[in-house]
Amino acid sequence: LLENYLPTTGNRTIRWKLPADAGSSSFMGQLKKVFDPQTTAMISGLSSTGRYAVMQREEAVTIYTADPDRLCELLPGTATERFPNLVVVGEGSMPAYFDMRTEKGVRWSSPVQCYLELMRGDGRDKDTAVQVKKYIFEEARRKTA
Questions:
Q1: Cβ pair 5, 116 in contact under 8 A
Q2: Which of 17, 60, 113, 119 is the most exposed place for a label (fewest CB within 10 A)?
Q3: CA-closest candidate to residue 44, choices 65, 64, 72
Q4: In the 8-state DSSP scheme, what is residue 95?
């Protein structure tokens, strides 16, 4: 799976500043607005890492979407190159990512997507990928028990 994984390239990237700190409840509340049935979007594997492993991530949360302009229209804030806390990556046809998960109105990447993205990173990312891999196998054991 890892050998054949092609990372997202994105056809358009918008850096955005929401009027809240990434990770705060108000930030997540603002993000919920974009995860309606008419918007195809999910939080990237790297930005979903905290759901499956312990690792400090960057300040900005990355979202993959088929329509970055529509997504940004739904959000408060503004486009900026200076200190964005959200990166919106346009994905054209928005391929189906491995089992994305919805929790409290927000769509997150699955642990498999998270693992694959981490394995494309540096040594620290690859170390964290080991934690995510353990999570995947523990989740599979729980479901089959």
A1: yes
A2: 60
A3: 64
A4: P
15-29, 84-98, 110-124: the lowest-pLDDT one: 84-98
- pLDDT tens sequence across 107-121: 999 999 999 999 999
Give the number of other CB atoms < 10 A from CB of residue 19.
12
| Alpha helices (runs of H) in the chain, residue ranges in sequence order | 25-32, 68-73, 111-119, 123-144
- Residue matched to tokens 């196998």: 137
Contact 109, 45 (CB under 8 A): yes
Quote the pLDDT of residue 117: 93
Half-sphere exposure of 50 (CA within 13 A, CB side): 9
pTM for the whole structure:
0.89
